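Hi R.,

As promised on Friday, here is the backbone we talked about, encoded as structure tokens. Could you run it through your design pipeline when you get a chance and send me back a sequence?
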């Protein structure tokens, strides 16, 4: 007999990357551009190398932090405006499929910045996984290097944790980067959906069986994948 799911448990789950997916910006790069404009090009290059799988994520995070000086005030400012950068269509898209899906956010970004967007999209706080800033008084002096998502291969490990506690018919990982694609290399139960509305990376496009350039295309795919009788169109 199949396991009976709790009343509030959906039969499928959609796991989203945050930067350049749920929001249109790379949040750490955005902060750096505002606080250290002379480092903008260097930082963007490092981010692209990591997201294309040409540099490890852990190395890219450490390198980017070595170029910046951020304060708590910088973070508070971005928190107050981050919802303005939600990718057009996701608010409506989440509403459209929320009856069939549990939503998660797994990001190499930072929880403080993710939470306001998660609340707007009605993604539970406990379903958000990301890095943490380390503060000394008002200054950010780094990030928590013990956090799984600050390390190489972090996203597959978090997905494994989620699936060890939940039973889903279909599991989807949606994102623009190689770290998102990496999840399906480790777990073949997960269907990867590349998302290139803001950043279409050749290394991801090359390996992705499913790749979308708009929210509408993505949401239609998720709807039809979980409701085979529904027609694309």
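Update: got your reply. Pasting your designed sequence below so it's all in one thread:
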């Amino acid at each position: 007999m199949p396991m009976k799911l709790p009343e509030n448990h959906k039969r499928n789950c959609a796991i989203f990357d945050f930067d350049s997916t749920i929001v249109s910006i790379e949040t750490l790069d955005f902060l750096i551009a505002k606080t250290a404009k002379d480092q903008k090009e260097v930082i963007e290059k490092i981010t692209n190398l990591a997201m294309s799988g040409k540099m490890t994520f852990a190395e890219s995070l450490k390198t980017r932090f070595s170029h910046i000086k951020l304060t708590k005030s910088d973070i508070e400012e971005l928190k107050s405006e981050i919802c303005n950068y939600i990718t057009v269509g996701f608010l409506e898209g989440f509403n459209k499929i929320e009856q069939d899906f549990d939503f998660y956010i797994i990001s190499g970004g930072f929880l403080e910045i993710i939470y306001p967007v998660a609340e707007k999209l009605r993604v539970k706080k406990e379903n958000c996984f990301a890095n943490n800033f380390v503060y000394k008084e008002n200054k950010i002096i780094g990030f928590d290097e013990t956090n799984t998502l600050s390390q190489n291969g972090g996203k597959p490990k978090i997905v494994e944790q989620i699936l060890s506690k939940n039973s889903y018919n279909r599991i989807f990982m949606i994102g623009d980067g190689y770290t998102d694609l990496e999840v399906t290399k480790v777990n073949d139960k997960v269907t990867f959906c590349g998302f290139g509305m803001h950043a279409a990376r050749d290394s991801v496009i090359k390996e992705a069986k499913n790749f979308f350039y708009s929210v509408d295309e993505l949401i239609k795919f998720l709807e039809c994948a979980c409701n085979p009788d529904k027609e694309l169109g």
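One thing I noticed while checking it: The first strand starts at residue 12 and ends at 16.

Thanks again,
M.
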